[in-house]
Please model this.
Amino acid sequence: MSKFSFSSEQDEFRTNLRRYLADQVPTREVRRLMETETGWDRAFWRRLNDDLGVAAIHIPEQYGGHGFGFGELGIVMEELGRALVCVPFLSSAVLAANAILNCGTEAEKRLLLPPIASGESIATLASTEDGGSWEATATTLTATPSGGGFHLSGHKSFIVDGHSADLIVVLARAPGTSGDVGLSFFTVPGDAPGLTRRPLQSMDPTRKLARLEFNVVPATPLGPLTDSQGAAAAFAKTMTQASVCLANEMVGGADRLREDALAYAMMRMQFGRAIASFQSMKHKHADMLLEVELAKSAAYYAAAALDDGDDDVIAIAALAKATASDTYLQTAIHAIQIHGGIGFTWDNDTHLWFKRAKSSEVLFGDAAHHREIMIRNWAA
Amino acid sequence: MSDVTEASVRAEVSTWLAANWNPALGLVEWRNKLAESGWGVPHWPKQWYGRDLPVGLVPVVEEEFKRLGAVGVAKVGIRVLAAATILAHGNDMHKEKFLRRILTGEDAWCQLFSEPGSGSDAAGAVTRADLRGNQWIVNGQKVWTSGAQKAHWGLLLARTDWDKPKHAGLSYFIIDMHQPGVKVQPLKQMNGHATFNQVFMTDANVPPELMLGREGEGWAVTTTTLMHERRGADALRSWAMGSDQMGRAYEEERKEISVDLAPYKWYPQRAGRVDLLLPRARETGSIDDPVIRQELAKLLIMSKSAEWTARRARAAQAEGKPQGPEGSLGKLASSHVARLAARIHTQMTGANALLTGADGVMDGLIAEILVSVPATSIAGGTDEIQRNIIAERVLKMPRELAVDTNKPFRDVPRNIVS
Ligand SMILES: Cc1cc2nc3c(=O)[nH]c(=O)nc-3n(C[C@H](O)[C@H](O)[C@H](O)COP(=O)(O)OP(=O)(O)OC[C@H]3O[C@@H](n4cnc5c(N)ncnc54)[C@H](O)[C@@H]3O)c2cc1C
Model:
C-alpha cells in the first residue's frame, strides 16, 4: 500500500471481508449482541478468525500471525466499523496485541501472542482510570513487589471488553512514583483472585466498557522492569497505533451512514418527488461525501505512515483521529436528520452507528485533544 | 508502453537535466528544448511534446526539476486549460499551431465563457457566431475574463443556432484576441487588482478551421475545459514563485512573472496562504493561544486531508480511471481551506490586519488574503454548483428540474442585459 492507493491484493481482501460481513452480520445480529452483557459471541469470533484470520493479520509470523501491516489492519477496522460488527477486535487484536508487541520480551511475545492471533484468547489493555485521562502519567494503580512477584491494587475504568477478556494487560506504577517514570505493564488473567469486573452502563451498547477493581491481585510483569521510562514510551506508541486503527474504523462507519442516508433519500417521496431531488438534500450529501473522503484520506495516510515508520507519525495519527471524530459524529447527525421522524426511532438502525460515532469520538481522546497533540508536534 | 518505475523515471530525467539544463539559455529556447524532449509535460502524448508517462509519476519529474533548480514550461493561467482542451478535441493542425507556443509561454490564453447574463449557467450564452461567407462573425459580450488583457487567443463559447435547445445550439471557437473587433476592458476587483475583464466582440472574425469540435457540439468541449479547471483548483495547485538565482533563463522567468503574469500576483493569496500560517503564528505569539491552536489545527487537518484526497484522485487516475466529476470535491475543499485560512490569518494579526500597503503586515499581504479569498468559491464554478455536480454526477441524485432545456433557446426566459 502506498499512502494514496491500495494494492489489488488489498482491494481483494477488502471486497471479500465486506462480502463476508454483509452476509454473516446483519444488523439483526448487532442488535442481538448489543443486548447481551458480554457484547460479542465467542463462536462467531472463532469462526471469523478461522475463515479470515483477522486477529492474526498484523501479528508477525513468528508469533502465530500473518505478518501484514497497519494498512491491512486499517482495512479490517474500516470494514468492521462499516458493518458495526460486535467483536473484540479493538480490545484484543489492536490494543492488547500492540501493547505486547511494543513492550514484551521475546519470550513473552512467543507465549502471549499466538492465542490472541488465533482468536482463542481475548485480551484487552487497561490503562484508563476513573478520571478518564488517556495519558499514562495519570496512572495511579500500583504494582507492589511481593515475594518474588507483584500484586496490583487500584482501579481501571472505560476498559473495552474489560469484563469479558481472558487476559488483561494492565498499566501500573511503582508505589511512590509519578509522571512517566515508574510505569510498567503487567498481565492478569480475567479470573484472577481479587479482581472485580463490572460492565458499565454505556450509551453505546455496541462496544462494551467495564470498570475493574484490583484488590491485591497477583500479576506477571510484561517487558523489562529495569527501564524506568520504557513503559510510558511503549504505551504512547500503542495509543498512536490504536488511534489510527480507530480512525479507520470510524471512516468505515461514517461512509456506511452516508450511503444508507443516500439510499433512503432516493427512496423517500414527499411533494410528489424523491427527497433526494431537493437541493438542500443534494448539497448536504455533497458535503457529507467531501467530509468522509477527507477523513478517509487521513485515515489511510496515517495507516501507511505507521507502516513506513514516518517521523511525523504522532502528529499524523492525531490528525486522522481528530478528523475521523468530527466527521463520524457530524455524518451521524446528518443521517438522522435525513431520515426524519423514523431516524429518531429505536427500530431504525441509524442510531446504532450514531452511538458508535459518539463513543469512538471520546475513546482515546476527542478531536480537541488530538488537535492539540498534532499542533504540539508541528508547531512546538 | 515500456515498464517505467519511479526510479527509472528519476534516473532518466536527472540524467537529461544534467546534460541539458543551462540557466544561460533564453527562456523560450530552453522551453523549446523541454517541448522537444517531452520532459516539460511528460504525461502528454509522445507525439505532442510529452512522454506518455502515467500522471502519477509527474511529481517525480517535478521533484527533479526543483532539486536542480531547472525552470519548467509555462504553466500559469488559462493556457493549461487551453492545452488540455486542444489535446482532447483539437485536430493535428490545432495541436501543431498552438501547443508548443503554450508551453514556451509565447502565447497567453483566456477563457471567454461567462457573460453578464450567464455565469453558473454558462450554457445560456447569448454571444452569437454567424457564418458569413467563409468566416464566423462574432458579436456579444463576455465578462470576468481573466487575463484577457494579455491574451493572444481566447477559448470562446458562442451560440450558432437559436432554434435548438440551449446546449445543442452552442459551438466552441478559438478566437484571435488581437483584432479590431475585440475590445478588452479591465475590471477592478474587490482586492484592488484587475485580473478579469470585460470583452466586447463586434463583428469579430474566426476562420472556420478554428472551431474545436463540431458545430453544435460546443457544450461537450466546454465541459472538458471546465472539468480541467475544477480539477486544477484542488489542493495540489501551485504558483510560479520564480527563483532568485542568476542566469538568463531565471531572469526571463522573473520578468515573465512580474510583467506577463502581473495580473495574477494575488493568486497565491486567494488560496489562503496556508504556508504562512505556522510562521505567522510563531511570529505573532498566537501559537500559545489555545483558541488559535485549535483553529490552526482544524485548518491544517483540512488542508492536509484535502491534499491527500487530491493525491488519491491522481493515483486513481494514474491507474487508468478517467478524469471525472470528482474534481469538484477538490475544488470545494479548497474553498473551505481558503476561507478558514483567511479567518485565522486575520484573527492572529488582530487590528494590524486592517492595514494595507506599506502600513500593513508583510506589505499588506495579510489584508490581501482576506479580500482575495472570496474569489475561490466563485471562480471556475461556485461552491453551490460544485455541490450540484457532486450530488448529480458522483452520487447520482436526481437532477435539478430544468425549465429551459426542452424548447428552442430563443423561447427561454433570460436576463435583460442592457
Ligand atoms: C476571480 C474570477 C475570475 C474569473 N475568471 C473567469 C474567466 O477567466 N472566464 C470566464 O468565463 N469566467 C470567469 N469567471 C466567472 C465565474 O465563472 C462566474 O462568476 C461564476 O461561474 C458564477 O457566475 P455568475 O457570476 O454569473 O453568478 P450567478 O450564476 O448569477 O450566481 C449567483 C449565485 O447564485 C448561485 N446559483 C446559481 N445557479 C445555481 C444553482 N443551479 N443552484 C444553486 N445555486 C445557484 C451561485 O452559486 C451564486 O451564489 C471568473 C470569476 C471570478 C470571481
